[in-house]
């Protein structure tokens, strides 16, 4: 634990100790005195309690507890029991009655608690000590006072006794009667049993006086009953006839001394409470001093002789007592203040110590923190320097890596164009050489095969980077899997035949259609088959089996060969990049299978390998399209018309397949080739010029050339000096004069973004390099064919196309506008093609070429056709004369109209009307 962790604990402990030491001990070392008082409803008892408390307060060690039994014997017993259980050091008891209290007093003694009996006694002597005046003596003194003051011959006395069963009552009576009996002329004429209170005696006294009893003296066992007796006598008018003597002799306005002074009582016998003496005696007992069993307090008579003196004495004593009490209070206050200040001082000291400790610790901490901060700063600076170095190195590494990769990618792209050219040239030579046969043919085939192989390798390298960069986006389209597979294996049939390898394709569902990215899946097939052919010896066997899981949602494509197989150890690495089998002695890039796996997984499918007598690769694909994202499905029109393009003829031109180009030179279509690679441009021109009129542009004047020639088709590269192919395409498609021209984008950019960009620019076809010449030719033909179809549509719907935006098609808008202008001027035989071109905002030649390209006829023929069509419908629907119809449709004469009509429809207008 650090110092810091200790500080709160030490502080708390320190304060606790200080606070503890500040408090006055509550019980430890205290003298616990329990006092069971009989009652506190009279002054004598109150005076007793006061005297005890005062005496106790002189000794701070005394803890005095007073329990008031309130004149209830049972209660006093219970309270004594309570005191016993609290185990005080000593118990003082003033019993209400002797007998009932005796056992519990004895019990305290038995339990070893010293017990001091005061005033009234218990029945036996089983207590530690007794303190009180001698009540027999009290009785005697009272009797003596009567006898000595008497002047009569005989004395009649009424004795008013205290509570029966309490020792003072018994003893006072004994002493009194003893003395009276000794004096012959005195006698007790009546006895009243009181209970120490005046109410108990007044009624019996009244009845005594109302009867025969008469007395000279009344001796009451205490002053309260004595005053009560006086009240009765006063009420009866006898107060001067009887002398009353009481006991207690208390000072104060209601006390016996005052009653004597007031002439109410003849005398009172002093019966001291002994409160202070009781405490003193208790301390002595606890101090184990030897004390007498009976401690008798002295008594005396107070009468008119000494009442004043006694009163004065008591007043003085009371005054002194009062002073003492005040001093005690003052001392207590001082003491409390002392303790409070003492405590405060200690707390202040404690807090000061803590503050000092904290201050020291803070200073220590500040130094430590500063030191640590300095260290951290240094470390931080070091780390920053290191990080910067690492970043710099990483940047350098990245830059060098990027540079290498860019170089490598660029180079690979660069390779593609020459290789395309080489392959195309070889294909061309191959055609020529085929007829001649022999050695040249073989060599050409060798060059051809190896060029293709080289191209595949380059493509694989480029694909590998694309896969690493996660740049591939799947473009899946619905494909007949059997036909697709069949097309691919055609490429390998020649090799199979040459090496006498049994090569076959089987399927349990030849009609099965799946969603695949044909380009990627073609690469998977090619890799797996190349692999199989590489490792299968001559006369071996290679099989592709397509198994449609009819009940399930998958299809398995198995590629099985009878080759050398794959060693068990290599199995789990087969699909890792740059893997080469331990039993493979042939050259290998090691990325083919890795790419195959990536491509299959892009289809959410899986590829597995087994090796039992040869290798068996199983590609599992899902049926349907639910497992693809929406954007992975090619939903828009497929740019390559797959019904026309034959995948197998990728490198071999099949003459039978080509649509024969028109033989008539004049009828040749025009092709504008926009390509800055002179070799490729020359090659394409060379190949295509047999069938087409070729115009060339290196890209700098592509738009101008297109506007000038209005070609039938534009082939356009993307990366060009000046505008990109996409931009050129966009301009042409937006211009009314050229918007009808089919555009083919030729590019090395095979990524999704470029493809989308191509589509957005309005290109009709997007061919990635290296493209197969045969596919290019076929695509050109297909686009021209589509244009023919469109042309047919336009010419046969001349009337229905109106000047409206609703088609959203620039061509239809063009024809709509053209038709409106022509229709508006049908009756005007002077309306010329120039007027029309002017209204359309294009040149006469451009209008001529556009209409020719779109509809295959000249603009004047088009206007003529429109007039004839209109006239034909008027012949059918109206009753206008033939000459009216001829003029209203802009024919200069009815004769010319008839000739033209017959030329087009084979009938004269008159016979047409008749027949319809
Ligand atoms: C007070 C008192 C005194 C009397 C004493 C006897 O309660 O009644 O008047 O002297 O008790 O125990």
Automatic annotation (TrEMBL):
The modified positions for 4-aspartylphosphate read 717
Q: What Gene3D superfamilies does the record point to?
A: 1.10.287.130, 3.40.50.2300, Histidine kinase-like ATPase, C-terminal domain, Homeodomain-like
PROSITE patterns noted in UniProt = HIS_KIN (PS50109), HTH_ARAC_FAMILY_2 (PS01124), PROKAR_LIPOPROTEIN (PS51257), RESPONSE_REGULATORY (PS50110)
Keyword tags: ATP-binding, Coiled coil, Kinase, Membrane, Nucleotide-binding, Phosphoprotein, Transcription, Transcription regulation, Transferase, Transmembrane, Transmembrane helix, Two-component regulatory system
Q: Name residues in a coiled coil.
A: 307-337
SUPFAM superfamilies per the UniProt record, alphabetical: ATPase domain of HSP90 chaperone/DNA topoisomerase II/histidine kinase, CheY-like, Homeodomain-like, Homodimeric domain of signal transducing histidine kinase, Periplasmic binding protein-like I
| TM segment ranges | 347-367
Q: Which GO terms describe its molecular function?
A: ATP binding; DNA-binding transcription factor activity; phosphorelay sensor kinase activity; sequence-specific DNA binding
Q: Start and end of every HTH araC/xylS-type domain?
A: 816-915
Q: Which residues form the Response regulatory domain?
A: 670-784
- The EC number(s) this enzyme carries: 2.7.13.3
Q: Which residues form the Histidine kinase domain?
A: 410-625
Catalyzed chemical reaction(s): ATP + protein L-histidine = ADP + protein N-phospho-L-histidine
Q: Which PANTHER family match?
A: HYBRID SIGNAL TRANSDUCTION HISTIDINE KINASE C, TWO-COMPONENT HISTIDINE KINASE
What is the protein name stated in its UniProt record?
histidine kinase
Q: What organism, scientifically named, is this protein from? A: Pseudozobellia thermophila
- Lineage, uppermost ranks: Bacteria, Pseudomonadati, Bacteroidota, Flavobacteriia, Flavobacteriales
